[in-house]
Design brief:
The protein has 180 residues and is mostly helical. The protein has a domain of 80 residues: ProQ/FinO domain (Fertility Inhibition Protein O, Chain: A, Domain 1, Orthogonal Bundle), CATH 1.10.1710.10. 68% of the residues lie in helices and 4% in strands. It has 7 helices and 2 strands, in the order H-H-H-H-H-H-E-E-H.
Length: 180
């Protein structure tokens, strides 16, 4: 009979040894090529990086938004995103068709979407829970939405560059490992 605990322990030890060997190899290679220690640390970070947990459960947000879309089809429509009335959250809570925690979750997703930011143009009518006009988007609100769109696009570009950089480092690491 196979001792599973022994095999797991041995496997962990082998992984630890391999990790130390890779680190030493990277350091030796970096010294040989006059690569700065910070680059070695960056490679280690890429190799040892654990996937980051999302702060909010995206599926739960989408499910909550779906409930709002079903309860208020004239207000929440992915194909025709329009600015919402200031204070609509209180109206939704008072209407009691959807639980308060789901309203908060859904609204947070909805108003932070690219399409929502794009809908916030100066002079465009806001809508209430019945899809009726309820005020206008001001210049300041429109400018804020434009700034948020720029921030989002900039963050996406930076993320894309970071991913490309990590891919290059990973390829370099693979080359280092395959040379030995």
């Amino acid at each position: 009979m196979v001792d599973v605990e022994f095999l797991c322990s041995t496997t962990r030890q082998l992984f630890d040894q391999l990790d130390s060997m890779l680190t030493r190899l990277e350091q030796q290679r970096a010294q040989a090529e006059n690569v700065s220690q910070s680059e070695v640390i960056k490679v280690n970070d890429v190799v040892n990086k654990a996937p980051k947990a999302k702060s909010k459960n995206r599926a739960a947000n989408m499910a909550a938004l779906q409930q709002l879309m079903e309860a208020y089809p004239k207000t929440f429509d992915r194909k025709n995103v329009r600015p919402l009335k200031i204070g609509i959250q209180e109206d939704l809570v008072a209407d009691e068709k959807v639980a308060k925690n789901k309203i908060k979750r859904a609204l947070a997703s909805y108003v932070r979407s690219l399409n929502y930011y794009r809908s916030l143009r100066e002079g465009v009518e806001r809508i209430d829970i019945n899809g009726e006009p309820a005020g206008l988007v001001t210049k300041e609100e429109s400018d804020h939405a434009k700034d948020k769109l720029k921030e989002i696009n900039k963050a996406r570009q930076e993320k894309r560059k970071e991913q490309e950089r990590e891919e290059r480092l990973s390829q370099k690491l693979e080359m280092l490992v395959s040379r030995k």
